[in-house]
Write a structure and sequence with these properties.
Distance between the termini: 62 Å
Number of domains: 2
Radius of gyration: 30 Å
Organism: Anoxybacter fermentans
Helix content: 25-40%
InterPro entries: AFP_Neu5c_C_sf (IPR036732), Aldolase_TIM (IPR013785), NeuB/NeuA (IPR020007), PseI-like (IPR051690), PseI/NeuA/B-like_N (IPR013132), SAF (IPR013974), SAF_AFP_Neu5Ac (IPR006190), SAF_PseI/NeuA/NeuB (IPR057736)
GO molecular function, one term: N-acylneuraminate-9-phosphate synthase activity
CATH class of the largest domain: Alpha Beta
Protein name: N-acetylneuraminate synthase
GO biological process, one term: carbohydrate biosynthetic process
Strand order of the largest sheet: 3-2-1-8-7-6-5-4
Number of helices: 12
CATH topology of the largest domain: TIM Barrel
């Protein structure tokens, strides 16, 4: 079996997606790292790009970007302000080490991929918009590092092509994230079951990159078996920028992490057996066979002498027909629980 980093995870890997919510300010970026570390996520993720390699001068903005940024500003102009250079990357990586949180970033072009590889990030996160950019996927896969592949806007055939391209390099260390690329994503369009379709179709570990408002959907994804959860966050939803309004604020991010960890604990190992905490309640909640009226020593048990009541520390109700015809070897008062040692067959 091919080893997969994400299959072997002992707990859900939670990525706090800072993205471009630093607004091009490294001090804001560091505050985001502080928030992510405090929340207890596994990694914080930024975005690495050269604007001139990513966007043409005339590229239009998405509808959600038009609502959250200046309409007079082009997508190129908007993104250029959010670009982080190599020095900023190094500074942020070092700050993450101080805060004991993993630094990740999504590359959007070949040069950015090389930069992140040079900085020795532990694995690559491929953004949804690049899933059909097969030359780029192959280039990333050839770095032979684990890959998180987002699938927003993609159909099953495009996911197949992307995975085949990655696998052609000998790199099979991939987790595939279901995603809806809208900010915010409408709840009724999330189609969370598609995550399971991806898992079953390609036999890969799966996760979920969430753009909905609130916490319910990523928590539900964990309950369904997500290995990785990614969620945008910000210092303040009212900040200027394209992604802030569809992001979690610090307290919400912390609550998400706590909720995911609780769901993980609740999922357990799948073996149905009494929980340790409930064993003490067995005799209280279950029932036993009791005397319907006083039973004399040596009297033969008949059905009219027996009832089923709490507590459950005597003979179990399922044996009521089995003990008919037995004699009792002591005087048993009405409502007293019958024990096996009270019976004799001769």
């Amino acid at each position: 079996m091919v080893k997969n980093y994400f299959t072997d995870l002992s707990s859900v890997f939670i990525i706090a997606e800072a993205g471009v919510n630093h607004n091009g300010d490294i001090n804001i970026a560091k505050k985001l790292i502080d928030v992510a570390a405090e929340a207890g996520v596994d990694a914080i993720k930024f975005q690495t790009f050269k604007t001139e390699k990513l966007v043409s001068q005339g590229a239009p903005k998405a509808d959600y970007q038009l609502k959250t940024t200046k309409k007079s500003e082009s997508q190129y102009q908007m993104i250029k302000k959010l670009e982080l250079d190599k020095t900023s990357h190094v500074e942020l990586m070092n700050y993450c080490k101080e805060k004991k949180i993993m630094f990740l970033s999504s590359p959007f072009d070949f040069e950015s991929c090389d930069l992140l590889d040079e900085l020795d990030i532990p694995f690559f996160k491929v953004p949804s918009g690049e899933i059909t950019n097969l030359p780029f996927l192959k280039y990333i896969a050839e770095k032979q590092k684990p890959i998180i592949l987002s699938t927003g806007m993609a159909n099953i055939a495009e996911i197949y092509e992307a995975l085949e391209t990655i696998y052609s390099t000998g790199n099979r260390d991939v987790v595939v994230l279901h995603c809806v690329t809208e900010y915010p994503a409408p709840i009724e369009e999330v189609n969370l079951s598609a995550m399971l379709t991806i898992r079953d179709a390609f036999k890969v570990p799966v996760g979920y990159s969430d753009h909905t408002l609130g916490l319910e959907i990523p928590i539900a994804a964990v309950a369904l078996g997500a290995k990785v959860i990614e969620k945008h966050f910000t210092l303040d939803k009212s900040m200027e920028g394209p992604d802030h309004k569809a992001s979690l604020e610090p307290d919400e991010l912390k609550l998400l992490v706590q909720s995911i960890r609780n769901v993980e604990k609740a999922l357990g190992d799948g073996i149905k057996r009494p929980a340790k905490s409930e064993i003490k309640n067995l005799p209280v909640a279950r029932k036993s066979i009791v005397a319907a009226r006083d039973i004399k020593k040596g009297q033969v048990l008949s059905r009219d002498l027996l009832e089923i009541k709490r507590p459950g520390d005597g003979i179990e109700p399922k044996f009521i027909d089995k003990i008919l015809g037995f004699k009792v070897n002591r005087y048993i008062r009405r409502d007293e629980v019958l024990k096996w040692e009270d019976l004799k067959s001769e």
